Amino acid sequence: MNENLHNYLGRQVKKYLDDDLVAQNPSLQNFIQIINQSYLNYEKDATLFEKSIKLNDIEYNRINAKLKVELEQKKDVQKKLFNTIKQLESSNHVVIEDNNSSDYLFKILTDEIEFKKRHQEELYIAKINAEKANEAKSDFLSIMSHEIRTPLNAIIGLTYIIENEKDIVNIHENIFFLKKSAQHLHQLINNILDFGKIENGKVDLENISFDYKTLVIDITKSLESMIRENNNKITVYFDDEFCAEIISDPLRISQIINNLLSNAIKFTKNGLIEIRVKTLNKSQNNIVFKTEIIDNGIGIDLDKFDAIFEKFSQLDSSTSRKYGGSGLGLVITKNLLKLFNSEIHITSEANKGCNFSFILDLPLNVNQLDNYSSNLEKDVQIHMLDGMKVLLVEDNLINIKVAEKILHHWNIVLDVAQNGLIGLEKFYANTYDLILMDLSMPVMDGYEASAKIRIVNSTIPIIALTATTSYLCLEKALQIGVNEYVIKPFIPKDLNQKLFKYYKKIQ
Fold first, then answer.
1. Measured between alpha carbons, how far is residue 310 from residues 140, 262, 335, 336, 485 in Å?
2. CA–CA separation, 233 vs 189, rounded Å?
3. Residue 226 neighbours by CB distance under 10 Å
4. Each residue of 468-484: pLDDT tens digit?
């Protein structure tokens, strides 16, 4: 029996119980077997428990090591994420604090994603607007091409006809239409220049005394041929309280009225155009008045009011094809009125006409200042400039020939240099009363030549006679020492007036 007993129990039975006693007592044998089974079960459970503990320790260590690796990886990712978000500090919309918590970093990242999303939406809207603007500019360039090519076609064709025309009457007629085409082209270019000047804030208003009533009437007279061409009638009305002698900028005000009136005439056929000036308020030194220009032409739909005051815009391309025009007139008018702290108002109905109006608040001429003559059609006196010595620095041969014929007609003693370097050499070698300087030339441009001349002579008048329209370039020329400038294509009468101003000083 002892052979089947647990080692520890067997030793105890053999030590304390006689073999015969055990063999003769079945109850004792059963008791010993029960105790033996308990020993065996305990040992089995202990072995299993030990194995379980060992396995648990291995799994725990494995899991713990894995968690440590994952934790290190998380810290490394979190550190990289934090450093990446830290770079967002350059953006004004986010401020990073020294906080490495996941929740904080997640919040920052979420805010940044929301910001990027809003920024993306804004970029999309800007892209749509840019595409619309480019489309509008393309339409504008198409219109401008048509507007420029039309008078150029007339100029080129009439020039050919004049060359071959024998009848003196026809020559005069052709010259009249040639002059009209050139004036149209010149006005178009002036509109573009005015638009750029206003856009860049380069317009300064004058304060000159003038007669507003005379100004308005002279503008209507200057447009008589256009009025007759469209078979229109025009009336001008001033109320009895209106005081015509005001102080302001007659040139800019005439531009406003001319643009609005030309617009009314252009879009009205066989109709009536009215100019009404009404006094709203008047004191001893000041007057507030409203000017209305009313027509019964094609009119404008209410939903298109805003479009006509946008850059490079007309109602639609068919309008420009049928009636012509660059679409700049109303934009220039709107921006000019801003300079007078005023704005353009419009009421209209399609096929029934338009009413454009604006209000001006201006001082009255109570001190009887010299009145500016506003007669737009008057002939400016051409002055003979006998013996005035002028150096023309110009590289274009055609421009040289044109200038020579005009200046010789005024009895000017003219010398010509075909670039700035030759002009500088002639200046060193000769004496001149005035220099006409082109700015863009090969070898040496007008800027460098003028600067070198000013080192030697600070008083000789230098007038830039240039096709450059960039105001930065023109300001640069003035800073170098150019006295003033005349933009090509120039009106001979304007150049004559500028030259006469300096001619008087040398007499």
1. 11, 18, 11, 14, 31
2. 29
3. 13
4. 766 677 788 889 999 99
The packing angle between helices 212-222 and 250-266, to 10°, is 40
Helices and strands counted in the chain (H then E)? 15, 13
Neighbouring-strand partners of residue 78 = none
Residue 245 in 3-state DSSP?
strand
CA dist., res. 261 & res. 255, Å (int): 10
Task: Give the alpha-carbon dihedral of 85, 90, 91, 95, to 10 degrees.
Answer: 60
Kindly state the DSSP code that residue 460 receives in the 8-state scheme.
S
Contact 352, 297 (CB under 8 A): no
Q: What are phi and psi of 401, to 5 degrees?
A: -65, -45
0.85 cut: is pTM over it? Answer: no
Beta strands, E only, 377-433: 389-393, 413-417
* Cα–Cα distance, 219 to 34 (Å, whole number): 134
Take residue 276 and report the two structure tokens written for it: 């009404």
Query: 151 preceded by cis ω (within 30°)?
Result: no
DSSP assignment letter at 200: T
Given a contact cutoff of 8 angstroms between Cβ atoms, the answer to whether 281 and 288 are in contact is yes
**Cα within 13 Å of Cα(464), Cβ side:** 28
Pairing of strands 389-393, 434-437: parallel
pLDDT greater than 50 at residue 314: no
Q: In 118-220, where do the E strands start and end? A: 208-211
Please state, for a pLDDT cut of 90, what percent of the chain lies above it. Answer: 23
Using DSSP's 3-state secondary structure scheme, residue 295 falls into strand
Sign of CA dihedral 258, 263, 268, 273: negative
pLDDT tens digits for range 47-70: 777 777 777 777 777 777 777 777
d(C-alpha 385, C-alpha 411), whole Å: 6
Beta strand 245-248 with 208-211 is antiparallel
- CA angle in degrees (0–180, nearest 5) for 326-332-337: 155
3-state helix, strand, coil in the chain (%, to 5): 60, 15, 25
Cα 463 from Cα 82, distance rounded (Å): 64
Shortest CA distance to 356 belongs to which of 271, 297, 313?
Answer: 297
The residues with which 293 forms a beta bridge, in sequence order, are: 275, 356
**Helix or strand or coil: residue 221?**
helix
What lies within 8 Å, CB to CB, of 189 at 6+ separation is 489
The answer to which of 2-16, 337-351, 429-443, 477-491 has the lowest mean pLDDT is 2-16
Residue among 452, 449, 412 at smallest CA distance from 432: 412
Tokens at 68, concatenated: 């440590």
